[in-house]
Amino acid sequence: MEQHKFNVVGLHSGSVYEDIRTFIDKFHSMNTRSNYERHIRNFFVWFRGKQLEQLQQEDMPIRNADVIKFQLFLRNHEADYSNSTINVIMAAVQSLYEFLEINEYNVNSKFAKVDVLPDDSESAGALYYHEAEAMANTVMTHRKGHEKSAFLRMAYTTSLRKSTLLNIKWSDINKNPNENHYLVSVIGKGGKKHIVPIPDQLYNELLLIKEQEYYQQYKDNKVFHLSKTTIQNMMDTLKEQLGLSAERNITFHSFRNVAASYGSLEEVQDHLNHSNINTTNKYYRHKTKDYSQSLSLRMGKEIDNSIFNELSKEELISLIMNQGAGAILNMQKEAQEIMNIKGVV
């Protein structure tokens, strides 16, 4: 019986799909396999207009110009892919072509190589609430001012990405029963459903867009109708008007960072719809560190709390209002709790 143990053989069709499947399945991580399959599928849908299962040998040869065009396609995609994400996608395609060349396909894997894009993990500079609010107020004087202002307020209130904001429909916004706010339901990055509440006041600002004469031409149920070029020009003008230096590198993505000043790390993770809290911690905590509170400077400089007793009410209020947005919010919450205990609504 032992001699017949290996008599059963696999059925090998020798198809392109079977070989690509072999390449994908060689990775031990299920997550890696899933990601590589998705990236490679998307590439061939773009490149040949075919699913992996439909590919033939003659579909596989590639030019370097084709791969560069695909990289440019991803850079200009409405999904706002980061450079690091694009690098991962391109690496999957390159790795596949190395595998195909080794397995005697009529391809040259060096043609699949493109320049690695620079790390943009910290490309969006930190923006603070009072600055975001000033930008939303200032843009009211621009063409389509009501729409642009509401667009910016939605950006820093919901922390939704630009592409997601531009795809929001009126039917995606619904009143939360028995509550004084609305819920915005969207499909975010990676196809994840995400629900973000917005206050009544912001929803009313959105409704003002419908009252604009130019807006009557749109029948697609979308809330916003702003091109990427318009948004970029708006950002450039606002930074100049408000004197935001180029060194700070403020981009539209900076509005997504505003919420990082509020709440706990876990709350910010939920608000930003991050699967991994390390992403939240790495990219969305404001980078402007308060070095005045460093241990090396605090040693030997302890000040007694009685110093507050020497300040007038006006001086104390001024001191409070000059703190960071997150600190002010926490004090407001604690003040409200004190008022609630005292029975004051």
Topology:
Layout: H1 16-25, H2 30-47, H3 64-75, H4 83-102, H5 129-138, H6 145-158, H7 162-166, E1 173-175, E2 181-187, E3 193-199, H8 200-210, H9 228-241, H10 254-257, H11 265-272, H12 277-283, H13 295-298, H14 313-321, H15 325-341
Antiparallel strand pairs: 1-2, 2-3
Overview of this protein structure:
The protein has 15 helices and 3 strands. Strands 1-2-3 form a 3-stranded antiparallel β-sheet. A hairpin with a 5-residue loop joins strand 2 and strand 3 (193-199). Helix 5 (129-138) runs antiparallel to helix 6 (145-158) and helix 6 (145-158) runs antiparallel to helix 8. The termini are far apart. The protein has 3 domains: 12-112, Tyrosine recombinase, N-terminal domain (DNA polymerase, domain 1, Orthogonal Bundle), CATH 1.10.150; 129-260, hpI Integrase, Chain A (Orthogonal Bundle), CATH 1.10.443.10; 312-345. It has helices at 16-25, 30-47, 64-75, 83-102, 129-138, 145-158, 162-166, 200-210, 228-241, 254-257, 265-272, 277-283, 295-298, 313-321, 325-341; strands at residues 173-175, 181-187, 193-199. The chain is elongated, with a radius of gyration of 27 Å. With 345 residues, the protein is mainly alpha-helical.
